[in-house]
Amino acid sequence: MTKLFATRLALVATMMLLVTPAIAAQQDDAAPPPSKPGKPINTGDVLSGELNAMKVRDVKNAGKRIAMYQITSEPRRLPAPNGLCNLETGPETFQLVTSSDAQATQLKSFVGKEISVKVDEVACASDPGQMSEAVVTKWSIIKKQ
Question: Scanning 23, 82, 92, 111, which has its CA 20 to 30 A from the CA of 49?
């Protein structure tokens, strides 16, 4: 009986020696890379990413539901005084503010697709109704060749 116990103990000890480094290696692989600020985005630069659409309530029009368009991109650093928008790496979601029905119609056809826009004016989100980390108030779509 003692010999059987010693054999099982030796087997468990050997298994622990083999499994422990593998578990430690997996945990090291899962560690996120250190975050670094995104590259800067300035007036005239191109912002690329997937276009998403959401329905939000417009606080100015008695709660009427309106479409809001958003680009999800790599982290970008905004020009001063906005900087990183109180985020470690800078904003990754950018709300595209439409100034006309024509712009809204233009964006509607690109929902769910990769698009590129030329940024003319960008700032950190500050209003309670904004769903993105940054807001692009003046922009134009770059046509793909």
Answer: 82
